[in-house]
Write a structure and sequence with these properties.
Layout lengths: L1 E8 L8 E4 L4 E5 L6 H11 L29 E9 L11 E9 L4 E5 L2 E3 L1 H9 L10 E2 L3 H7 L2 H12 L2 H147 L12 H117 L4 H47 L4 H10 L3 E4 H4 L1 E2 L4 H8 L6 E3 L2 H14 L6 E3 L6 H14 L6 E3 H4 E2 L3 H9 L3 E4 L2 H9 L4 E4 L4 E3 L3 E2 L8 H111 L4 H43 L2 H118 L3 H8 L23 H17 L7 H62 L4 E6 L10 E6 L13 H18 L4 E5 L7 H14 L4 E5 L3 H5 L3 E7 L5 E7 H5 L1
Parallel strand pairs: 3-22, 3-23, 8-21, 11-12, 15-16, 21-22
Antiparallel strand pairs: 1-2, 1-4, 4-5, 5-6, 6-7, 9-11, 10-14, 13-15, 16-17, 17-18, 19-20, 23-24
Helix pairs in contact: 3-22, 5-18, 5-19, 5-20, 5-21, 6-16, 6-17, 6-18, 7-16, 10-16, 12-15, 21-22, 22-23
């Protein structure tokens, strides 16, 4: 697996799409400062999921988008595409090539894709997690990363190893499981609360369900009574509707009779209306004729007047006749103009012939001049080519000569440098031999100082171990003392008297000598049995006599303090009972650890001890009930077991687990006090031992420091000689390398000198050939120049003649155009004059004819006017007669309409009466419908079904109590059913508020409680499974990290020794007992130095130490590729060689991408990528395979 290509579009300085094709092995990116090399590293980190803008050297994530330059606008998005070769299947995806792309828009949106398919950042991190490329980005060593490794905390350094070992994905699984546990705990608590709440609700809900069952019985009586009452209402409403329907049929017969009379009246009115309508068209026609005749009379009067007026106007004088030039005179002027046009046309043709002749002469002159120009141009081009060739040869000869001189001078300098390097190598070799002899002299000889140093170091370590052992002993002693003191304090609190005993000791105090538990000591192990035998006295108080006991009891009752247990001093022991108990012990032959006389278990001789012996006289203490039975069978008066059971011949009590007895707690308290005192003494002893150990350690440190100072002084001298020897050896190596390089350079200069001299001889021969064959081009050029001048003058003259001829032609053409058309215009004018005269004559004839026509029209119109007036008088008489007849018909029609309206009024009255009857019927039907709807709404059945099942015609069955004789059915009585309904409703009200859903809710709640109980068990099992997963992950991570830490530590030692020959470096775990949380410290001791702190190292040593740590990780847990940004910038030539050796080792298992300025780093690369910044602020890349250059 390795990186194949990286494509950047709009990312930082890569404004245009730029693709870098990487090779397996070492790839170097080179270029000047500020060209954009580190942007390649940022692009790699960004595309595989980097989320910190500061890690990308920016203030905000939008800074990665190309911001624009003076010549190029800013872009709206940045896109980086990384293609990975996955032919070895290292990535868990079924593709031999994996393409990861990331796009960021300036508006703030971001997109990720794998092989063109949109995905999440988490998907990319999961894909790359097994390859060692995670969120820590340890495979990318950017600028400042080395110092970050050294300044990081030990825990942060562990993060690098975790990422390389692939532990992060396990940590994510663990974190996910823990998050699930947290959410599961919330659900678990919630379900437990719900289950408790359900249990709390089930009790009241059960009572509500019982009430609901009683209510169901009462509601059945309510339903039956209401149904029968409602069925009675429906039956009565139905009867009223049927009676109303009979009355409606009578009104229907009267309505039919009246409708017949109305039909006859309507027919009569229609007939009269038809007669009137039939007469109306005749009257309308007469009226129209009368109006038309009146209009004709008016029109004929107007026509007579108009014709008379028109005749008078036509008979007036005609317009003036034509008085201008005659057509014959106009035609004569047209003939004269035509002759002038012919003369001008002949002049134009003569001018055109002269122009063509002049143009021919001008073209001949121009052709001659062009031929001469062509010849002159050819000659001049030949002269210029010879001059250019001569100048070029001269320049090449000068360049070759200068180069030969420069090479000669450089060869001399190189040879002088070779001699100087030889001299320096000889001198350095001599000094190396002398210093080696001095080093041998210092290193050989008596090494007693080193031996003394080792012995002092051993003594110092032994003293420190003793101090640490004493400190540990002190810590343990202090912890033990605190533990025993805490235990004693806790027991003391538990032994404090309570209730009435506390009141007696604290408040009453009269005659009280102390507590029983403080005054008595029981043999070890028998405290519980003794306390059981004492029957509660062990928790009581001690009084001095009977009187004090009576006073205490009387005061406790008065104060309502509670129950008191009192032990009275001075009571004598019953020896007979003890003898019987000892006899039983002897008979059973039980061992002393199996049974013991109770009076013997009580230690002490005080009055309290004597009183206690009296209480337990005749009692035997034993270990268990089986031993107790043996003792009772043997004649023991009373037996008490360690479990708190007490048995006698007539009484026994116990049978339950007893809490820690007061006497046992008192014994434990006494033991804790003794142990606390012993622990305090041990603390004092360990403090003295620690002070002595510290004094010895200080003395050992002082001795070690003295010897170490002497050894350091000697080692410093030896280190100075060794350092000087290393510098001289480097000088010898550098001088020899310089000799080799300069010798190679001199050979290359000799080869180039031979080449340049051959080129110079060839150029000299070409110049001789160019100078040996000159031609007389100057004479030809002068002759042709003179001929061209003469030809040019002839051409200018011909052009002048042509211009004059053209002007003459244009003048004659203008004159011809001015006179042309004049004759035609005069001819047209003569024709127009003749036409106007003829038109005037025709107009005079037409006016005469019109005057005669107007006179005829006036006569005819007068005759028509007289006839129209006669016809108008006749039509007026006929129209008046028709109007009188129409008035008679309208009178008859009005009377018929009045009769028809009276009949309609009677019909409306009858309809109103029928409507009222219908309203009454509708009300009855509405009442019936309401009752039917009420039956459906209240009882859930139709009216017909209700009447059929609960009607008043049905008998009612009576309720029978279980065990009674059946009762006969009774008829329906409305009052009885109303009383029954009222009683049932009162009973229902008496039940109070009823939850109708209580039965269903109670059943559902029980089912839900069962379901929640099952869910609770499932959650507990899931929690157990998740805890198992967390334990498995911890075990897996611990195994992986243990192996990784061991491998990295081993590789770090070898890598550090390679980078620092003679030095020593190792990794130290801050908490070796817990590899999951331990940090990692780096100890580095370069050769010749005894320092281990990283802050005391030089800059180069710090860089090499950080590189050694990272390379150790790379070797222990290889990743597919590593990116290093100028990690060797602070190294000298020797250390650079060592680092390059590590690079060559790493390329066997990984691909390296190195940003560098070092030439030697470039020499080991398999591919080079040149990065440059153009003038417009855009980065460009040029790539080259090194093997292609070698071949």
């Amino acid at each position: 697996m390795h990186l194949k290509t990286l494509t950047l579009r709009g990312f930082k300085s890569f404004a245009t799409a730029t693709t870098l094709s990487f090779e397996p092995g070492i790839n170097c990116v080179v270029g000047p400062n500020g060209s954009g090399k580190s942007n390649v590293v940022d692009a790699l980190a960004w595309v595989i999921g980097e989320q910190g803008a500061k890690n990308l050297r920016g203030g905000a994530m939008a800074d990665v988008i190309f911001a624009g330059t003076a010549k190029r606008p800013a872009l709206g998005r940045a896109e980086v595409t990384l293609t990975i070769d996955n032919t070895d299947g290292a990535l868990p995806i079924d593709y031999s090539e994996v393409t990861i792309s990331r796009t960021l828009f300036r508006a703030g949106g971001s997109e990720y894709a794998i092989n063109g398919t949109a995905c999440r950042l988490l998907d990319i991190q999961e894909l790359l997690s097994d390859s060692g490329m995670g969120r820590e980005m340890h495979v990318i060593i950017g600028q400042g990363k080395l110092d970050e490794v050294l300044t990081a905390s030990p825990e942060d350094r562990r993060g690098f190893i975790e990422e390389a070992a692939g532990v992060l994905k396990h940590r994510r699984r663990k974190e996910k499981a823990l998050r699930k546990l947290e959410s599961m705990q919330v659900n678990l608590t919630r379900i437990e609360d719900l289950a408790a709440e359900l249990r709390r609700q089930l009790g009241p809900l059960a009572r509500q369900a019982a009430t609901a069952r009683r209510a169901q019985v009462i509601q059945a009586d309510v339903f039956d009574a209401r149904a029968r009452i409602l069925a009675d209402d429906i039956a009565q409403a139905q009867a009223r509707v049927q009676a109303q329907t009979v009355d409606e049929k009578k009104f229907q017969a009267q309505r039919e009779e009246l409708r017949g009379r109305i039909s006859a009246a309507r027919a009569e009115v229609a007939r009269l209306q038809d007669d009137a309508d039939a007469a109306n068209p005749q009257i309308a026609a007469l009226t129209e004729n009368w109006q038309r005749l009146g209009s004709l009379v008016e029109r004929f009067n107007g026509l007579v007047q108009l014709a008379s007026e028109r005749q008078r106007s036509l008979l007036q004088a005609s317009p003036n006749a034509h008085r201008g030039e005659s057509p014959e005179s106009i035609r004569e002027r047209a003939a004269r103009a035509r002759k002038e046009e012919d003369a001008l046309a002949k002049d134009v043709r003569d001018a055109e012939d002269a122009l063509r002749e002049v143009i021919s002469r001008r073209e001949s002159a121009e052709a001659h001049e062009a031929d001469i120009d062509q010849q002159l141009t050819t000659i001049n081009r030949s002269i210029a080519n010879r001059r250019e060739t001569a100048a070029r040869l001269s320049g090449k000869i000068s360049t070759a000569t200068s180069r030969i001189e420069a090479l000669t001078s450089e060869r001399e300098r190189v040879m002088a440098a070779v001699k100087d390097a030889d001299r320096r190598a000889s001198e350095s070799t001599t000094q190396v031999i002398e210093l080696e002899q001095q080093a041998v002299a210092h290193s050989t000889g008596d090494d007693s100082l080193s031996t003394a140093h080792e012995e002092a170091a051993g003594e110092q370590q032994a003293a420190r171990d003793a101090v640490e052992a004493a400190r540990q002993a002190l810590v343990e002693a202090q912890a033990s003392a605190v533990e025993w003191r805490t235990k004693a304090d806790t027991l003391e609190l538990s032994l404090a008297p309570e209730d009435a005993t506390a009141w007696l000791v604290n408040d009453h105090r009269s005659g009280v000598t102390g507590l029983v538990r403080d005054a008595v000591k029981i043999s070890g192990g028998w405290e519980a049995a003794a306390e059981a035998a004492l029957s509660g006295v062990a928790q009581g108080a001690i009084v001095s006599g009977i009187d004090e006991a009576v006073d205490a009891l009387r005061a406790a009752r008065a104060a309502d303090a509670g129950h008191l247990e009192l032990l009275i001093e001075g009571t004598e022991t019953d020896l007979e009972r003890d003898d019987a108990a000892r006899s039983a012990l002897d008979k059973t032959e039980l061992a002393s650890d199996q049974a013991r006389l109770a009076s013997d278990a009580i230690e002490g001789t005080s009055g309290a001890a004597t009183a206690l012996r009296s209480l337990v006289s005749g009692t035997v203490l034993c270990v268990d009930l089986s031993a107790a039975k043996q003792l009772l069978d043997a004649g023991a008066p009373s037996v008490a077991t360690m479990a708190g059971d007490v048995l006698s011949g007539a009484h026994a009590w116990g049978g339950e687990a007893q809490a820690a007895a007061i006497l046992a707690r008192q014994a434990t308290y006494d033991d804790a006090r003794a142990q606390a005192a012993t622990a305090s003494e041990r603390v004092n002893e360990t403090e003295i031992d620690l002070d002595n150990a510290r004094m010895k350690a200080d003395a050992a440190d002082e001795k070690f420091s003295h010897i170490a100072a002497q050894l350091t002084a000697r080692d410093s001298k030896l280190a100075a000689v060794t350092a000087q020897l290393g510098v001289l050896r480097q000088s010898v190596t550098a001088a020899r390398q310089e000799v080799e390089r300069n010798t190679e350079r001199a050979d290359r200069i000799d080869l180039e000198l031979a080449t340049r001299r051959g080129e110079l001889e060839s150029l000299a021969e070409q110049q001789e050939q160019l100078d040996s064959g000159p031609e007389d081009f100057a004479t030809k050029s002068a002759t042709l120049t003179r001929e061209r001048e003469v030809a040019h003058k002839g051409t200018v003259g011909a052009r002048s003649d042509e211009t004059e001829a053209r002007l003459k032609l244009r003048t004659r053409e203008e004159r011809l155009r001015a006179s042309s058309g004049r004759s035609a215009a005069l001819e047209n004018q003569a024709v127009a004059v003749e036409a106007r005269v003829a038109q005037e004559q025709r107009q005079a004839a037409r006016r005469a004819e019109a005057a005669l026509l107007a006179e005829s029209i006036s006569n005819d119109a007068h005759v028509a006017l007289v006839a129209a007036k006669k016809m108008l008088a006749a039509v007026t008489v006929e129209r008046e007669e028709a109007e009188a007849l129409r008035s008679t018909r309208e009178t008859e029609l009005t009377a018929g309409r009045r009769h028809y309206e009276r009949l309609q009024s009677d019909e409306r009255d009858l309809d109103d009466l029928a409507h009222r009857q219908e309203l009454a019927l509708a009300e009855q039907r509405l009442r019936y419908d309401q009752l039917a709807a009420r039956a459906i709404d209240d009882l859930g059945m139709s009216a017909e079904v209700l009447v059929n099942e609960f009607g008043p015609h049905l008998l009612i069955s009576q309720n029978v109590v279980d065990g009674d004789d059946p009762k006969p059915d009774i008829p329906f009585v409305r009052q009885e059913q109303e009383k029954r309904l009222a009683k049932a409703e009162r009973d229902l009200t008496r039940l109070g508020r009823i939850n109708p859903l209580a039965l269903e809710e109670h059943s559902a709640l029980e089912e839900r409680q069962r379901y929640l109980t099952e869910q609770l068990e499932d959650l507990r099992r899931s929690r157990s499974d998740l805890l198992g997963i967390v334990r498995d992950i911890d075990e897996r991570v611990e195994a992986v990290m243990t192996s990784a830490l061991t491998d990295v530590a081993r590789e770090f030692e070898s890598t550090f020794a390679h980078l620092f020959p003679g030095g020593k470096g190792n990794l130290v775990l801050t908490n070796p007992d817990d590899v999951l949380t331990t940090g990692i410290d780096i100890e580095a001791r370069p050769p010749g130095k005894r320092i281990k702190r990283l802050s005391l190292l030089s800059g180069g040593e710090r860089s090499l130490t950080a590189v050694a740590f990272l390379v150790a990780i790379f070797k222990a847990r290889p990743s597919p590729f590593y990116v290093m940004d100028e990690v060797e910038a602070a190294l000298d030539d020797t250390n650079l060689s060592r680092l390059l050796g590590l690079f060559e080792e790493l390329q066997d298992s990984s691909q390296l991408l190195i940003i560098t300025h070092q030439k030697r780093t470039m020499e080991i690369a398999d591919a080079l990528y040149g990065v440059a910044m153009r003038e417009d602020g855009v980065t460009t890349v040029i790539s080259q395979r090194v093997k292609d250059l070698v071949t």
